[in-house]
Amino acid sequence: MLPVRIPHLESAAHMSTREDPVTDPPTVEILDVSPALAETWLSRNPNNRNLRKAVVDGYARDMEAGRWRLNGETVKFSTTGQLYDGQHRLNAIVQSGMTVPMVVIRGLADDVMPTVDAGAKRSYSDALKLSGEENTSTLAAVARRAVMWERGMRTNTGAIRPTPLEMDDFLARHPEIRASADLAARLASRERLPASVIGLCHYLFAQIDPDAATWFFLRVADGDGLAATDPIAVLRSRVTRLRVSGGRINETEGLALTIRAWNAHRDGSTRTKLQMPKGGLTNENFPTPK
User: Against a cut of 0.85, is the pTM above it?
Assistant: First the structure.
């Protein structure tokens, strides 16, 4: 068994003398990792994998917001001081300027590198299931888009990648979104819009008129009593034609089309088609529910 040493969290002054990650045999300890210490470790490891900026940005936001938790994930070093695991977290510490606790393992054998991060990564849906949530795949997808919407990101460009902690925080502040995800899970296969679109739009529309929001999506699903020029019927027709032709509904386009249909129906307007802005959708020209 590896010797384990878990001392009291070290002070910043103490850490300044602990820049060399190399010890032998392997040891495990909890350290407060400052930006300066993180930079020192990263500077000695120029050959790590390419950084995924969205991951670093997400970690940094969690650190800045005080959401970061010591969860047992480790920063790993080999006997020669090579950084095996933790590059994204260390870069997030540098970017955020925050000092956060990390579990640090030093002195791992060189032949363990192929086993690092080789397991199946737990998804946010998996985490929701473990916490007892229902319709977890849909809830995860809806929560992701809801966090993006709250942060002003309307189009799904990947510029913002919500973290599990950000999505947990959103669910804690807006528990009503679970009802929207439940409705989306029931209707998605029938109305052929992505579940994330149904769930997010129902959540947004319900803030304006809860009963009307539910009625809207029931009619998108079954079309009962709709005139051909009702914006809901036009939305149904466009989605159905695309599906029948073998296409798929782009999440961002589906979101914009659904909001346009909602706004037009609320205004009592008729439509023969739902148009997208010339030049494509952007955060600036994206429709907002009314």
Answer: no
